Amino acid sequence: MPSMMSNDDMTESRRSNEITIENAPSSTQDNYSMKEKYAGGPPLEVVDHKDSEVLEDEEYPDGGLKAWLVVVGAMCNTFSTSVQSSLRCLLQCANFHGHGRDALIFGYVNSWGIFQSYYQESILQSSSPSTIAWIGSIQYSLVFLPGLVVGRLFDMGHHRSIFISSSIILVVATFLVAECTKYWHFLLCQGIVVGLGCGGIFVPTTAVISHWFKKRRGLAMGWVAVGSSLGGTLLPIAGKNLLPTVGFKWTLRIFGFILLTILTAANLLLKRRLPPRKLEGGILNLKAFKNAAYSIYCISAFVTFLGIYTLLTYVGVSATRIGISSDFAFYFIAFANASSLVGRYCAGSVSDRFGPMNVMMPFTAAAGILTYAWPFAETRSSLIAVTVIYGFCSGAYVSLTANPILEMGEMHDVGRRTGMFMSILALGALAGPPISGAINAATGGFKVVGYYAGSAVLVGMVLMATSRHLILGQISGKL
Question: In which compartments does the protein localize (predicted)?
Fold first, then answer.
């Protein structure tokens, strides 16, 4: 008669079979599903076997109505956070006590350069470009910096409260900007409060997409990034045209109502798919930095962001200095954001086939070279050409920046891992424009600024290539 097996023996046998199957090579797995491709060092997190087994059994929808509605909600979020750079079109400043100007720059994150240009040329003429740039830098950095806390809260399952509270903060801050009359008012409301609201919205958005898409994640993230470019292109132009009709305060209030509508839709559409997991440790997962590829990629993003926003911040100012009218200089930010929209979509659509790093590297290199060329574009047509091509290339980089991080570990830890990455990146975004402004003030021009920013972007690209090589162990390969 066959020997009888106890329940414990049967359980152990099943576990043995599972491990054998898990380690067996499969021709259907691509680089994104092969964990060993992303090892490069010790595991990023030690988790309970049962939890890992549940996560591995989950299948990614990679499409379908629910998944694409989540993408639509994420686009609404990035559209709203772009108001951080679009909240400064040419707005009327007749009510800006005692300054007698016709316009006030209104731009959220992607259009901060418009704001920088106005303040530097009018209301804050006595302030250095470096000092003025701190408002925009704080905005940029606070989109990413809260990720350290927000990412951890997302992993713990608190995404809904994060979205709702951050949405309220952003809408209220937008209405408050209408009441600002001094520099420190704008620094507080526009730089800090708006930045914090955008940060609470942006970081969980990236993590939610990773719950729904795997093989088509690049395409999904490309569409999400398109929302930012749409906001950065349309909102400044809308503000400029609203201003003569309804005035400064009501233009901002209209923007506030637009944000209220869009963020309401986003809060209804964005849903996480995977349940929260119990994790070891607090808001930091320092074990992740034992992975050389992860650590170097974080440094790569920090260095790249020291220079990637310099051209967008100062192109309006540089345009007026070569004789282009301020009315037309306003549109250089719109040119960059419009071409960035195309770059973000194209990069996302091809990254699933070739790999995000393979797509980012050539476009990041091109963005660095164009930053070198920017100060030498001394005619309207040449500056437009540089701005449009730069917008396309930088958009390709920005849209895919987080994608490799999503793959460098387990999905249960994606919020915390992404949050640490975003916080490191934020330090570069914070320091970059003021450093460029200080260089401009010291040299009296933008050529050395271009050398600095272009070099930062190219060094960041080299570090990205190093991280890629640590993962693949060879020159060629999808990653």
Answer: Membrane
Q: How open is the CA angle 408-409-414, to the nearest 5 degrees?
A: 100
How far is 218 from 110, CA to CA, in rounded Å? 21
From CA 259, how far away is CA 81, in angstroms rounded?
A: 9
The amino acid sitting at 299 is I
DSSP structural state of residue 96: S
* CA–CA dist 226, 337 (Å, integer): 10
| Phi, psi torsion values for 354, nearest 5 degrees | -105, -20
Give the span between the Cα atoms of 383 and 347, in whole angstroms. 24
- Using CA atoms, how far apart are residues 445 and 178, in angstroms rounded to an integer? 33
Q: Closest Cα to residue 340, out of 203, 219, 232?
A: 232
SS3 call for 52: helix
pLDDT tens-digit profile, the chain (479 residues):
444 444 444 444 444 443 333 333 333 344 434 444 444 444 444 344 344 444 443 577 888 899 999 999 999 988 887 765 554 433 333 233 333 333 222 333 444 444 455 445 544 555 555 566 676 667 767 777 777 788 778 877 887 888 899 999 999 988 987 787 777 777 788 778 888 888 888 878 877 888 888 888 888 888 888 888 888 778 777 877 777 788 777 878 888 899 999 999 999 998 888 887 666 666 777 888 888 999 999 999 999 999 998 898 888 888 888 998 877 887 888 888 889 889 988 888 898 889 899 999 999 999 999 999 999 999 999 999 999 999 999 989 988 888 888 778 776 777 788 888 888 888 888 888 788 888 988 898 899 999 999 999 999 999 999 999 998 888 877 87
Report the distance separating Cα 297 and Cα 425, nearest Å.
10
Which residue type is seen at 251? T
**Cα–Cα distance for residue pair 248/238, rounded to 1 Å:** 12
Question: How many residues make up the chain in this entry?
Answer: 479
What does the H/E/C string look like for 414-470?
A: HHHHHHHHHHHHHHHHHHHHHHHHHHHHHHCCCHHHHHHHHHHHHHHHHHHHHHHHH
